[in-house]
Design brief:
Low-confidence stretches: 1-23, 377-381
Number of domains: 4
CATH architecture of the largest domain: Up-down Bundle
Number of strands: 10
Helix content: 55-70%
CATH superfamily of the largest domain: Multidrug efflux transporter AcrB transmembrane domain
Radius of gyration: 30 Å
C-alpha cells in the first residue's frame, strides 16, 4: 500500500542517468552542452567573445531607429493619424515675465513692457523663426495677463523639424536667459514641452550615469566578499557585461518596427546585471560545492551543468514569460522594454550554458587566484548554512505556527495597497527644486485657467466643405466660459488641407476628476453630436491630458489579463519542470504575496508620504500609473530565480531518496549561500535607484529592493518550507492523466 502511494505521489524517483530498456539514458541537453563547452573551452570562450563583437558591430551598422511612442486608446489613434498625414506639431513653449516686486504691474510698469518687447525680438530672431508667437500686446493676448497683473506670458512654438531636440530649443533658452540678465527686478523664464523634455533627458541621463558608475563598483565589492578572489568575482560581471552589450546591440533590429526609448537600454542594463550575476552565482557555487566534496574539476562541471544549468534554463524561461506580459498592456513604451529584457535574459541563459563552463574549465585553479586579504580564504558552498538550517528545522516542525506568523506579517504589509491610487506625478516626476519644475509651478500659479488643451484630429474627404465647417462651428458654440468644455475653440487646416486640428480647452488642471469628466464629456457628448454626425469624416482626441488618461485606462484594463496570462504560463512551465501540481501553485501564490507586500510598502512610503525627507521626494498622494504593473512583471520573473533554484535543490535531494522534510531542510540550507549572496547584490543595486532624482525611479528602486529582500528571507526561509512541510508528499503530486509529461525536462 505504501509503495503504491509513493508511486502515485512521486512518479519519478530515478536519478538523472537512469536506465531505460536496459540502455543508459542520454544526459540532459544542458549537461551535454556544458560538457562540450568544457572540452572545447577555447573554441567556446573565443567564439562567444567574437559573437558579442560581431553583434556589436552589426548593431552599429544597422542603426537604431527612434520610432515615435504613441499613447494608448483614442489618443494613440489620433497620434497615428497625424503621423500618416506627415504632420509634426511643434511643441509649445511659454516665457513667463513676472515682477519680483508686487508694486510692478502690467501695462503700467515700463520694465514689464520693455521685457516683453525684448522677448518678442529675441524669439523672432531665432534660427528658423519661432511660430505662432502670442503676447499680451498682440491680437491673441487674451488670457496672457495674470489676475494680479504682475505676470505676463509670451507663448510660441519651437521652430524647426527637430523641435524636441536640444539643438532646436537651446537657442530659445539662451535668448530668454539673455533677456533675464538685463532685468534683475523681473523673472524672465522659459518652460514648455521642448524645454521640459530637454531638462528631463539631461536629468535622467545624469541619474543613470550615476547609477551605472555606482552599481558596478558596489556589485564588484559584494562579489569579492562572496568569493574572496578577484578572478572568481569578475566572472559574473563578465557574463553580465557581455549579455548586456549583446542585447543592447540586438535592439537595433526590433527598433525598426517597435519604439525603443532611451530608458529601454537602462532597463536592459538593470535586468541584464541582475540575471547575469544570479545565473553565474548559481553555477559557480555549485561547481565549488562539488569540488569541495571531492569531485574532480570535470566532474564538478558536469554536475553543475546538469543541476544549476537546468535550473538556469527553467528560471530564464520563467523570467522571459513574465516579461512577455508587458506586450499585453497596449502601452507602447512597454513593448520596447519587453523585447529588450527578453533578449538580455535569453543571452544570459545561453552564456551560462556555454561560455561559463568553458571559462571555468579553461581557468582551472586560476579561478581562485587574486585572493583579497581578510576575504581570501577558500570559499565554498560545501557546508550548509547553520543559521538557515536551524530556522528551517524549526519551521518544518511547526509549519502552521511559523507559516501563519509570516503570512500575517506579509498580509499586514500588503494591506495598505487596498487604498492604492494611480496618478501622474506633477512636473513629470521632477524634483520640485529643479529650475524647470519651479518655472512650471510659477506659470500654473499665475495662470491656473490654462491647462493643456485637448486636440481633436479630424481626417476625411473634402474637409473644407460647408458640412465640416458647420460641425466645427457647432463644436465651438457648445463651449462655454465655465462648463466642462471652455472657450475659445480654434481650428486650423494641416497637411495641405488633408486634416484639421481643433484645439479645445477643457476644465480642470489637466488631471483629476474634473479634467477626466471634461474629456469624457467632449468625447462622449459634444463630438458625437457635431463631427460624429458629419458624413465622410473621422476624428480622435489626443493631447497631453488625453494621452495620460488613455494610458492609465489601458494599464488599468490590461492588468488582470497580464496577471492571469503570466501566472498561467508560469504554472505550465513549472508543472513541466517539476512534474508537480502543488509546486507551481505554491510558487505563484508566494510570489504574488511578496509582490503585494511590496505594493503595500510602496503605498505607505510614496502615496502616504512616509520617508519624504530620507528619500528626497515630495508625495503627491498617488503612485505613477505604470509602476505597479511594471513591478509585478519584473518581480514575478526575478523572484522565480530564487524559487526555481531552491526548489531544484529540494527536488534533487528528493529524487536521491530523501524524505520531503529532509529534502526541504537540506535544499534550503545548501542553497542559502548563493541565494543570500544574489539577494544582497540585487538589493544593493536596486537601492541605488532610490537615490536618483525622478520619483518614479525611486518607486521602482524601493519596490524592487523590498520585494527581493522579502522573497529571499521571509518567503525563502519561512513560508516556502512551511507550505511544503504542510503538503508533505503531496508536494510532488501529479495526476495520472498528466503522466505524459516528460520525465526529465530539458533532456
Amino acid at each position: 500500500m505504501l509503495r503504491q502511494m509513493q508511486s502515485s505521489v512521486l512518479p519519478e524517483t530515478d536519478p538523472p542517468h537512469h536506465r531505460r530498456a536496459g540502455r543508459p539514458a542520454r544526459a540532459p541537453i544542458v549537461e551535454r552542452i556544458g560538457g562540450w563547452s568544457a572540452r572545447h573551452r577555447k573554441t567556446a570562450v573565443l567564439g562567444w567573445l567574437l559573437l558579442v563583437a560581431a553583434v556589436f558591430v552589426a548593431g552599429q551598422a544597422i542603426g537604431t531607429r527612434n520610432l515615435p511612442s504613441n499613447d494608448a486608446g483614442q489618443a494613440g489613434r489620433a497620434e497615428r493619424a497625424l503621423q500618416r498625414l506627415g504632420f509634426t506639431s511643434p511643441p509649445a513653449e511659454s516665457v513667463l515675465i513676472q515682477a519680483r516686486n508686487p508694486g510692478l504691474t502690467y501695462p503700467a510698469s515700463p520694465q514689464l513692457r520693455r521685457a516683453e518687447a525684448d522677448v518678442l525680438t529675441a524669439l523672432r530672431g531665432l534660427p528658423g523663426s519661432a511660430a505662432d508667437i502670442r503676447a499680451p500686446g498682440g491680437p491673441h493676448g487674451a488670457g496672457l495677463i495674470s489676475a494680479d497683473r504682475r505676470s505676463v506670458l509670451v507663448t510660441f512654438r519651437v521652430p524647426g523639424s527637430t523641435a524636441r531636440e536640444d539643438a532646436a530649443v537651446a537657442p530659445a533658452l539662451r535668448a530668454v536667459a539673455a533677456v533675464q540678465a538685463r532685468y534683475p527686478a523681473l523673472r524672465v523664464e522659459e518652460a514648455g514641452d521642448a524645454s521640459t523634455d530637454r531638462a528631463a533627458n539631461a536629468l535622467v541621463n545624469g541619474d543613470f550615469r550615476t547609477a551605472e558608475e555606482t552599481s558596478v563598483p558596489v556589485t564588484l565589492v559584494l562579489l569579492l566578499v562572496v568569493f574572496g578572489a578577484l578572478i572568481a568575482a569578475g566572472i559574473p560581471l563578465l557574463l553580465a557585461a557581455t549579455a548586456v552589450t549583446s542585447a543592447i546591440s540586438l535592439l537595433a533590429i526590433p527598433s525598426h518596427w517597435l519604439p525603443i526609448g532611451s530608458t529601454t537600454s537602462e532597463v536592459v542594463l538593470i535586468i541584464g546585471m541582475a540575471v547575469g550575476i544570479d545565473y553565474s552565482l548559481f553555477y559557480l557555487r555549485r561547481e565549488r560545492e562539488e569540488r569541495a566534496a571531492g569531485a574532480t574539476r570535470s566532474e564538478a562541471l558536469r554536475v553543475a551543468a546538469g543541476t544549476s544549468g537546468r535550473a538556469i534554463v527553467v528560471s530564464g524561461l520563467t523570467v522571459m514569460i513574465a516579461l512577455a506580459g508587458l506586450f499585453l498592456t497596449g502601452y507602447a513604451v512597454f513593448s520596447g522594454i519587453a523585447i529588450g529584457t527578453i533578449i538580455v535574459v535569453g543571452v544570459a541563459v545561453a552564456g551560462s550554458l556555454t561560455v561559463l563552463p568553458a571559462l571555468l574549465s579553461w581557468l582551472g585553479g586560476w579561478t581562485d587566484r587574486g585572493r583579497i586579504p581578510l576575504l581570501g580564504r577558500r570559499r565554498t558552498a560545501a557546508r550548509p548554512s547553520r543559521v538557515w538550517g536551524a530556522l528551517v528545522r524549526r519551521v518544518v516542525r511547526h509549519p502552521v505556527a511559523w507559516g501563519s506568523l509570516a503570512a500575517i506579517a506579509l498580509l499586514a504589509l500588503a494591506a495598505p495597497a487596498l487604498a492604492l491610487r494611480l496618478g501622474s506625478p506633477p512636473n513629470g516626476g521632477f524634483p520640485a527644486s529643479t529650475p524647470a519644475a519651479q518655472t512650471m509651478a510659477r506659470i500654473q500659479r499665475a495662470f491656473p485657467q490654462s491647462p493643456s488643451p485637448a486636440l481633436v484630429v479630424v481626417t476625411g474627404r473634402d474637409l473644407s466643405a460647408p458640412r465640416v465647417t458647420r460641425a466645427v462651428s457647432a463644436l465651438a458654440a457648445s463651449a462655454t466660459s465655465t462648463g466642462p468644455v471652455r472657450r475659445p475653440v480654434t481650428a486650423a487646416a494641416i497637411a495641405g488641407g488633408r486634416g484639421l486640428l481643433v484645439e479645445v480647452p477643457l476644465a480642470g488642471n489637466g488631471s483629476g476628476p474634473v479634467s477626466d469628466h471634461a474629456l469624457n464629456y467632449l468625447r462622449g457628448t459634444i463630438l458625437p453630436a457635431t463631427l460624429g454626425k458629419t458624413a465622410g469624416v473621422s476624428y480622435a482626441v489626443t493631447g497631453f491630458m488625453a494621452g495620460n488618461h488613455d494610458d492609465i485606462r489601458a494599464l488599468h484594463d490590461s492588468t488582470p489579463l497580464v496577471f492571469a496570462v503570466v501566472a498561467a504560463l508560469a504554472f505550465g512551465l513549472l508543472l513541466v519542470a517539476f512534474r508537480s501540481v502543488a509546486i507551481p501553485l505554491v510558487s505563484i501564490a508566494l510570489n504574488l504575496l511578496s509582490v503585494a507586500a511590496a505594493y503595500g510598502l510602496l503605498t505607505l512610503i510614496f502615496q502616504d508620504g512616509r520617508l519624504q525627507g530620507v528619500l528626497g521626494y515630495a508625495s503627491y498622494g498617488a503612485i505613477v500609473p505604470w509602476v505597479p504593473l511594471f513591478m509585478f512583471v519584473f518581480l514575478f520573473g526575478l523572484s522565480m530565480d530564487y524559487h526555481v533554484f531552491i526548489l531544484s535543490r529540494i527536488r534533487e535531494l528528493r529524487l536521491g531518496g530523501a524524505s520531503t522534510v529532509e529534502a526541504i531542510e537540506g535544499g534550503i540550507a545548501r542553497s542559502a549561500g548563493v541565494v543570500t549572496s544574489a539577494a544582497v547584490i540585487m538589493v544593493a543595486v536596486f537601492s541605488i535607484l532610490a537615490t536618483l532624482s525622478l520619483v518614479q525611479l525611486k518607486m521602482i528602486g524601493v519596490g524592487l529592493a523590498t520585494a527581493v529582500l522579502l522573497d529571499a528571507t521571509v518567503v525563502r526561509g519561512v513560508l516556502l518550507p512551511a507550505a511544503l512541510a504542510l503538503l508533505g508528499e503531496r508536494s510532488w503530486y501529479l495526476p495520472r492523466w498528466l503522466g505524459w509529461l516528460p520525465g526529465t525536462p530539458l533532456s
